[in-house]
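Collaboration report, partner site 2.

Our partner group contributed sequences for two proteins of shared interest, and the home lab folded both. The records are reproduced in the order in which they were received, starting with the first partner submission.
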Amino acid sequence: MRLDKFLKVARIIKRRPVAKKVIDNKKAKLNGKQAKAGTAVKPGDFLELEYYNRYYKIEIIEVPQGNVSKDAASDLYKIEETKEIEVEMGEAGELF
């Protein structure tokens, strides 16, 4: 499954276009390497994500075949670390 779709399906980011924008702005690393929206994710991967004013280190536990229920979404990943970061505003006042 693509990284942008996984972020949406797992409900880490609510909309896929927003997930793609975050990834395209170099705010996501998969296993320590800069990720692209189409990068395939698999169980055991570690995702580092900067989203708004937070940093997340996430372990991907399971990759579903399609959409999952809201209750099952949190079982797809485990948050290893989270911390607050300082954010620089973009040209149009965007946070990511």
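Second partner submission, folded after the first:
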Amino acid sequence: MAIVDEEGEFMVQCETCDVWQHGLCVGYEDEGQVANISYYCEECRPDLHQDLIKYAFSMFSNVT
């Protein structure tokens, strides 16, 4: 499921845990990209977010 929030950003909801996340934060540019798919967050289905997890890890591992 995807909605547009009050700031005009679209959000996606995980099918398993119902958490809402900003679409852009998880790699989607607009709600059309998630219109006909089931979305699962990185906690529920990490196998679907390997690129995002690698990117996040590299960003935090470079922080001193």
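Feedback sent to the partner group on the second submission included the following. Strands lie at 2-4, 10-13, 20-22. Residues 2-61 form a domain with the Herpes Virus-1 fold (CATH 3.30.40.10).
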